[in-house]
Amino acid sequence: MFFYTQKEMINRLFGSWIFLFFLCGSISAQTEFTGTPRIKSIEDMLTFAVKHQRKPYKTGAEGPNAFDCSGFTRYCYKQIGIDLKRSSQEQAENGKKVRQKKLKEGDLIFFKGSSGKEINHVGIVYKKKSGKNFEFIHASTSSGIIIESNETEYFRKRYVTARRITSDKEIRNTVKTVEKENKASEKQQKENEKQQKKMAKLEAKRKKELAKEQKNISKEANQTTSASSNSFEESRYIVKKGDTLYNISKRFNCSVEDLQRWNGLKNNDIVLGQELIVK
């Protein structure tokens, strides 16, 4: 077992805290593609952004006719399928941190306001120059969408940090993945349609066979009824020795009165060899 003095314990705890601080600082908030990219490169996104120059600034607006600063960056990145957070402070949590000297076109750059140290403005690097200098496109409260340089005193003093949201490679990979998924979906859809057509044909065939079978059954029933009716009408019985109308009625499941009516008999008298109609 090890024992530490109070000073040693404080130093060890402080060292652990410093380690955790740098570890957490190195972990960036990952920004994922949430939609299908309509624009397939950073350069194309910047070209898209430039087309909105001189459109007015409006607090809370996200385009397409007016923007605030974070609304503009959010609108541009939506074109490549990335949904940035809404405010400039929140967007500073997207992507990964990048040093000012390592900036590239498409990176987000953040500035503090006239007073205080909190981030309250964001733009997109439009052109990287030497050293820490760059041009950026943003929604200016006074000029709307405009390209400016960070070399002006106003922005040079207020620069805070930068974040890299994505790269051309990530965009290309996402486009390929989406196209592959779309092809697989189309293939599956065609297969489903093929199966549906096949099932529809089988169902139509089954209904046709069922209708034919029912028709045959009905035809056979009609023939049986007709045959039964014919034989019913043509039934004759020859009176034998010992027969009476009563015995004959029981044999053919009818009444004595039926036999009398069918044969025009006025009473129960019958004779040997007499032909009787039986229905």
What layout of secondary structure does this protein have?
Elements: H1 6-26, H2 42-50, H3 69-78, H4 88-91, E1 96-97, E2 108-112, E3 119-128, E4 134-140, E5 144-149, H5 153-158, E6 159-164, H6 168-234, E7 236-238, H7 245-251, H8 256-263, E8 275-277
Antiparallel strand pairs: 1-6, 2-3, 2-6, 3-4, 4-5, 7-8
Helix pairs in contact: 7-8
**CATH homologous superfamily identity of the domain at 30-175:** endopeptidase domain like (from Nostoc punctiforme)
* Count of runs of 4 or more consecutive helical residues: 8
Largest sheet: 6 strands, antiparallel
Inertia-based shape:
rod-shaped
What features would you describe in this structure?
There is one protein chain. The chain has eight helices and eight strands, in the order ααααβββββαβαβααβ. The strands form two sheets. A six-stranded antiparallel β-sheet has the order 1-6-2-3-4-5. About 20% of the residues are buried. It is rod-shaped. The protein is α+β, with helices and mostly antiparallel strands. Helix content is about 45%, strand content about 15%.
